Amino acid sequence: MMICKDTIFRIEVRFVLEGLCIAWEKGFRQLDLECDNALLVETFLASGSANSMMVELCIIHQLLCRNWK
């Protein structure tokens, strides 16, 4: 079975989203988020997730705009 790069990107996005949601729900407001996917990190830093067609990226952008420390 071959997994394409697009699938891996989507899986990593989903894990970041789940981690941020869990942290927020548990009351954590200060995090160190580590990700070795340069494209994903660049997407967050350049606010490219705000206008993304990928729903998970839009939700991550909304989560990152919350009142984190």
Automatic annotation (TrEMBL):
Where the record annotates domain RNase H type-1, the positions are: 8-44
Query: What is a GO molecular function of this protein?
Result: nucleic acid binding
**Pfam families attached to this UniProt entry:** RVT_3 (PF13456)
* InterPro entries referenced in this protein's UniProt entry, alphabetically: RNaseH_domain
Per the record, the domain of life is Eukaryota
Instruction: Supply the name of the protein.
Output: RNase H type-1 domain-containing protein
